[in-house]
Amino acid sequence: MNRIELLPVSALRPALYNPREADAERLELVRLSLRKLGFLLPLVATTDGEILSGHQRHAVAVDMGAARVPVLRVDVPEKRRRGINILFNRATNDIAVQDTERDMSAALRGADVHSLAEKLPDISPDSPAFFPCMAAEMREVSPLARCNVSRFVRHAANVGRMLARLGVHLPIVTTPDGTVINGVGRLEAAARKGRKEIAVVTLDEDRAELARAMLNLLSMDFRFTGDNADFLRYGAFRRKWLHRTYLGRAFVLPVYRHKRLSDVRLDAAFMEKWKAACGESVLDFGSGQGDEARMLRHAGIRVTEFEPYPADGDTVNREKGRASAMGFLSAVRAGTPFSAIFVSSVLNSVPFPEDREHILRIVAALCTPETLVCAAARGTKSSSWSWFTEGEALSQRASRACNFPLNMEKGVILGDIATAPKAQKFFEEAEWLELWSRYFGSVEAGLSDGMVTVRCRRPLAWHPRELAESLRFEFDLPYPDGQRMGLVRLALKSFSQRLGLDLEGV
């Protein structure tokens, strides 16, 4: 069990990769919370002093003149710190899965915390009262769970379960009668796991309402820029466990719009129709584990693959990604014709709109007027999206997921938080149609089993300078540890040779 310690403020350092962006208004609310309530929960830091949770509280406490702060130290491998830092930024709020930073800010304004705070005296940062979490006591889980079961929130429990799995046991905060002020998810996770006891910080009723607002509603916005943006980019790989035993929706789309994918067999009748629509030399752009490519090759189709982020356990393999890119660029340079191009479940995992534009521009540049482009991605009509917008999921796996929505773009959620955080974009039908219509003159968009689909032909004219920009992006993609693909020059040469243009000089 983790032990909370009082450490000098100088023993801690902020994580440079922390994606939270504080603003002056919310920092003042942090100051107000510390002045009136003190540290109800400890900071969380690695054993070498890197802060994982509580950056703003640490900074404000230093500014207030505090010499020490309460810290829960955890042993976290360096490669997992970014993901766990993101998890902690959501870990202490008792909120539903669909609640966003915007929702929490609105609720915080409605709580009128300044009026609540006026009734309470200030706490000196030098006094023991500034560190109420140091007085946490172990109490039985079962009676607390029975008292609070009507307030359990599955999403909060999922976060609590993940924290416990990482060996992090934050206390919960309750009133004297056992009503949870903060930590109902951690309590539920402990009860479901069968733990006998949990650490409890008891707070008097006079402070409970202010504490409830500050602990559950005060949050900072995420800002994924620079290295943090790259972190999401190389987190976009298709997970190693996600192997396909049948063709994905984009590959079936030329023959069937709505047929259940597991019922599609690559028999002679299907392949005859498929070849008539797609030809026999195709490109799988973003081929993941390469499952569909192998199936099609076995059926006699010539398949070129491009997968910049092949999975290697819970991360990506740069050398395999470079090898895939070089093989793809060899086919481009050789003028290999692509009668069809597939972008299957790729754009969901591309975290930023401008990155998706680069992909479509490159795909369009590889097309003749008759090339068929088929794509599919998760849509906002899918059951997965309903879980994030409407609440509890029906499936066991979805109901245990630890994901949450981001405000950086409509329809984006963040998942796989503790291992390799991955942004997932869910498209609205109109948004999907508009995206593809910017690059193709013939666009047939549709909806199939919650996925948005598209069949395109007749690429629209593009400017060589824009294509060169997209190639410079796509073939210098980031990898962990600050590495990059490093194939820009080869990409520009290969596309220049194929298209008869000088892309290196633009």
What is the secondary structure topology, with strand pairs?
Layout: E1 4-8, E2 20-21, H1 24-37, E3 43-46, E4 51-53, H2 55-64, E5 68-74, H3 81-91, H4 101-111, H5 113-118, E6 137-140, H6 141-148, H7 154-165, E7 172-174, E8 180-182, H8 184-193, E9 197-202, H9 205-217, E10 221-222, H10 227-233, H11 249-252, H12 268-278, E11 281-285, H13 291-298, E12 302-306, E13 311-312, E14 315-316, H14 318-333, E15 340-344, H15 353-365, E16 372-378, H16 383-390, H17 396-399, E17 404-406, E18 412-415, E19 422-425, H18 429-437, E20 440-448, E21 451-459, H19 464-474, H20 488-499
Parallel strand pairs: 3-5, 7-9, 11-12, 11-15, 15-16
Antiparallel strand pairs: 1-5, 2-10, 3-4, 6-9, 7-8, 13-14, 16-21, 17-18, 18-19, 20-21
Overview of the molecule:
The chain is α/β, with parallel strands linked by helices and 506 residues long. The protein contains 20 helices and 21 strands. The strands form six sheets. It has a six-stranded mixed sheet, with helices on both faces. A four-stranded mixed sheet has the order 1-5-3-4. Strand 18 (412-415) and strand 19 (422-425) form a beta hairpin. It comes from Desulfovibrio piger. Keywords: Methyltransferase, Transferase. This is DNA modification methylase. One of its GO terms (biological process) is methylation.
